[in-house]
Description:
By secondary structure, this protein is of the alpha+beta class. It has 13 helices and 18 strands. The strands form four sheets. Strands 1, 2, 3, 4, 5, 6, 7, 8, 9 and 18 form a ten-stranded mixed sheet that branches. The longest helix has 23 residues, at 276-298. The protein is globular, with a radius of gyration of 22 Å.
Amino acid sequence: MGDDGLQACGVVMEARAPGKVILCGEHAVVHGATAVAAAIGLYTHARIHLLTGEDNLLVLDLPPFQVHLSWPLSQIQSVLDLSSLHKAYPQDVQSISESWSAKLKQLTDEQLPADADKGLQAGVVAYLFLHLYILGLQPTKMTVTSELPIGSGLGSSAAFCVSITGALLAAAQQLDLHRHLGPTEEGDMQRWLDVDDKDLDIINRWAFEGEKIIHGRPSGIDNTVSTFGYIVKFRQGQLSRIQTTMPLNMLLTNTKVGRDTKSLVAGVGARAQRHPKSMAAIFDAVDSISEEVVSILQSNSEESRIEHNIDGHAQSELVHNTVSRSVEEIKLEELVQINQGLLQSMGVSHPCIDAICCRTSKHKLQSKLTGAGGGGCVLTLLPHCLKSKAIEEVKADLAAEGFECFQAHIGGKGVQISKK
Ligand SMILES: Nc1ncnc2c1ncn2[C@@H]1O[C@H](COP(=O)(O)OP(=O)(O)OP(=O)(O)O)[C@@H](O)[C@H]1O
Ligand SMILES: C[C@@](O)(CCO)CC(=O)[O-]
Ligand SMILES: [Mg+2]
């Protein structure tokens, strides 16, 4: 018996799914443009315990929200028509119906405190939907914790959906898992298993259905990066992995201004309806930026990083604005600056985001919002030659303004599973 008095029957599965940064193309990607995103080394963990039949409950613990919810299975059965579930099986990905959406909201509202975070309801509805469709009415306890700031542009909603889906499919014994032989991450004693590619696709498709419940109109880029990991180019539901030898270092700064992706995406959609031609031109410009970023990342780096002087002597780096940069870094910085200008034109920047861009430009560094904007996080490109002392100065400058800065590993693996 656990601390909470529940009878776990010994099966525990855990999935971890990374957050992401969008290097370029957010919002425009919802309207068909190309975007480039990368997984970051900050994870959401979903741990599922199968409970014995004595505890006829679905239990959901969300420590970041200090929320503990539990539904008797009999209550769920009395509210929902579960006949559609008999036809469902995990490979057959389904969308939530209007009637299920209304009933799951009702089940959620009965449990959540009246003053609960407004975005939380959608997250809980997504959990109930994914649980009932993937694992059915099996009694379980799910605990979801996260290293990501929630609602800050680093893809917490996608990591939530991907990790829950991974844990549910693992508990349903629907995943082929591979032991990876590489070293475990420093200090991480847990053994993480990779998921077979065909199963990653199923995780991704269910997680997208969860994102739709939280976001309204997601492009699918966030769940795709969280599922597959690495650096990806994404356009109209299609992804291709970007291999690069270019060092991609960035500083992430959290404005700590709360916002939600759903209303920001809706706001850009409304602007596009009011000004279809002008906004289409902006989305086109973003598409060109993303294509250029892809070609820079994929350029034969060693060769093209060498810039030739007029007298024919090669110099490996250019001195641009006092810090040495490769030609690619200079181009990338310009594209980040242009993309941020276009995001401002879409109406998704914020005075705090603008203040961070302005602060970092005083250090000759370029920044843009990442994710949905309206607050949340800002990324700042760090040229590979920038000394750690200079990085500390930028961080101190931003901290003095009340902003929180951090660095994260870029381009790691996507969702993984651990069994106990
Ligand atoms: N650990 C978590 N526990 C419960 N719900 C979560 C968790 N992480 C994310 N969510 C859900 O996701 C919502 C936040 O998603 P939102 O899309 O607004 O921001 P984000 O995903 O962090 O940023 P972006 O979409 O710009 O990358 C929360 O309101 C909640 O519904
Ligand atoms: C704002 C957006 O483009 C990215 C959010 O991380 C929304 C989406 O693509 O789903
Ligand atoms: Mg999100």
